[in-house]
Amino acid sequence: STTRERAEKFREARAERDKKVVEAVKTFAEKFRDKTKEWMQIIDPKTGEVTYEEEGSEDEVGDPEALEGKTEGKIQVHNHPVETTGDEPDYPDPANKPPSAQDLGKFFDDKPREFLVVSRDYTFSLKPPPGGFTEKNKEKAEALFKSMLVKNGEWRYPTHEDWQALAAKTGIKYKRTKE
Prior knowledge:
By secondary structure, this protein is of the alpha+beta class. It is built from 5 helices and 8 strands, in the order H-E-E-H-E-H-E-E-H-E-E-H-E. The protein has helices spanning 3-32, 64-67, 101-110, 135-149, 160-170; strands at residues 39-43, 50-55, 75-79, 114-118, 122-127, 150-151, 154-155, 173-178. Strand 6 and strand 7 (154-155) form a beta hairpin. Helix 3 packs antiparallel against helix 4. The termini are far apart.
């Protein structure tokens, strides 16, 4: 076979693999978008297979010990429950909360290829900044977020606009998609 034919087969295989990943994320969103507890799945980006699933509480999911070695380079997706406000009772749209400040830490610690948060109406995507998941990048992002979100010693929940600003300053690839 020619180089062109091999390249075309490679592109077709990658498109099929990507389609399986998109389907797995879509299935997760349909299944867990309206739940009152957080759920998480780890998806293998090479196959679209769910390799791990965990049920959490109303405001947390992701047991660090259970996740050890399962997330790096994978697609990590979890939902933000619709009927709970957790410790953010004043958040303007609790059913559509973007990733939390705690999610930022998990994103850097777990080192996924993509970190997705599904809310009632949106899917939020985080991808690594240039240079990847270095301690320096993590410290910079966390310090910036803290400077943006802490007033008088009190944290507030980040908004979509906060994530856009953080992404612009750190190189984290952030996207919000309306469902």
